Amino acid sequence: MKIDQLLKENGSVKTSTESISEKFLIDKNGKWFFEGSEIKRQPMIKLFSRFLKLEADQKYYIITPFEKVSVKVIDVPFIVKSMEVVGIGENQSITIITNVDHNVVVGKEYPIRFSINPGNNGVIPYVKVNDKLEAVFSRMQTLEIIDLCVNFKRSSRNTMGLWSDNFFVALEDNNF
């Protein structure tokens, strides 16, 4: 079954005159749109998110056995909805859950990367949630992440970063 047919049969699409090149859009707040109308059914969003891929051309697509549909993503496709921190220092573990129920433990397999917001020079943390896809932390969670950072001696010099799952993420490794 085609994606647009599935959406229309489930009442998730209204007719829109808005002209967009991609049928799907994921805004910076993690809201999903199809042909200009917001998809409000969370089970539908979760279903589509399972087929979302970032291809070598650095564009996002929903790829099913039947079709490949381009998706415009404003920042990253997912939002961190909750975060749990257990332990401290090197024994610390950070578990995150996204808006589509990815549940990952931050560490070597699912690292955090930091970026600078060009608008205000603030830090924006992102976490890898699968393959090449990432989730962004909210402003409040960003403050929590920064609060977890510690000074650590690495290669005979001190560096700032945080621990999770026996993995150290250094702020300086993120090319500020």
Q: First CA to last CA: what distance?
A: 45 Å
What's the CATH superfamily of the largest domain, by name?
A: duf1285 protein
Strands in their spatial order, largest beta sheet: 3-2-1-6-5-4
The CATH class of the largest domain turns out to be Mainly Beta
- For this structure, the CATH topology of the largest domain is duf1285 protein fold
| Helix/strand/pairing category | mainly beta
Number of domains: 2
Largest sheet: 6 strands, mixed
Element pattern in H and E: HEEEHEEEEEEEEEHEEE
List low-confidence stretches: 12-20
Q: Number of DSSP helices?
A: 3
Rough outline? elongated
* Helix share bin: 10-25%
Examine the secondary-structure arrangement and name the CATH architecture of the largest domain: Roll
Which percent range describes the beta-strand content? 35-45%
- Give the beta-strand count: 15
Detailed description of the structure:
By secondary structure, the protein is mainly beta. It has two domains: 3-73, duf1285 like domain (duf1285 like fold); 78-174, duf1285 protein (duf1285 protein fold, Roll), CATH 2.30.270.10. Helices cover 14% and strands 41% of the residues. The model is unreliable at 12-20 (pLDDT under 50).
Primary descriptors:
duf1285 like fold, duf1285 protein fold, 2 domains, six-stranded mixed β-sheet, 3 helices, 15 strands, 41% strand
